[in-house]
Amino acid sequence: MRSDAPRRRGPALDVAVVGGGMVGAAAALSLARAGFATALLEARAPAPWSPSDEVDLRVVGLAPSSIALLDELGVWTAIREARAGPYAHMHVWDAATGASIHFDAAAEGRDLLGYIVENSLVQWQSWQALEAAGVRRLCPAQVSGFEVFEDRVQLALVGAEAETLSARLLVAADGAGSPLRTQAGIETQGRDYAQRGVVAHVSTERPHEGTAWQRFLATGPLALLPLADGRSSIVWSLPEAEAQRVMALDEQAFRDELGVASDFRLGRITGSTVRAAFPLRLQLARSYQAERFVLLGDAAHAVHPLAGQGVNLGLRDVAELSQTLVAARDDGVDIAAAQVLRRYARRRRSADTLDALSFDALARIFGWTSPPLVAARSLGVRLFDRLSPIKRRLAEHAAGL
Question: Ranges for the FAD-binding domain (predicted)?
Answer without folding.
Answer: 13-349
